[in-house]
Amino acid sequence: MEFIVDNVDKTIDIGMQIGKLANSGDIICLIGDLGTGKTHITKGIAKGLGIDDHITSPTFGIVNEYEGRHKLYHFDVYRVNDPDEIEAIGFDEYIFSDAVSIIEWANYIEELIPQEHLTIIIEKMPEMGDNYRKITIKCYGNRYEYAKEIKI
């Protein structure tokens, strides 16, 4: 599925819809260049999970934890130089738990991502304007079929 959005609120709304539909143990992979809106979509997912905390990207701490309808683990692996680094923090224990896991820059550690997951790719569309983004959602596994219900 592809969506074209022209503002941050629409990006957050897509995330909120995903968060409302997300289930325990879901793994959501975010891919996109710097400044595309990965953290904004994460804010929406958190909101959909009933999390009111201020959501920030865990760039220097690798993972932030939040409590909501389901626990949320928010990873940012941008600065991970070697997949062994993330395995050392107990990555498997996090993503194979009852929490919803969001992984920013998931393409950096794709060999560690389980076969079943939801991938969200966010791309800038400068030819249309500074705020335009193409958001592509790909479901890998039947458990993520709920993403087909998302609308803008």
TrEMBL record:
Gene Ontology terms: cellular component: cytoplasm
Cellular localisation: Cytoplasm
Annotated transmembrane regions: none
GO molecular-function terms, A-Z: ATP binding; metal ion binding
Keywords per UniProt: ATP-binding, Cytoplasm, Magnesium, Metal-binding, Nucleotide-binding, tRNA processing
UniProt xrefs under InterPro entries: P-loop_NTPase, T6A_TsaE
A GO biological-process term: tRNA threonylcarbamoyladenosine modification
Family: Belongs to the TsaE family.
Name listed for the protein in its UniProt record: tRNA threonylcarbamoyladenosine biosynthesis protein TsaE
Gene: tsaE
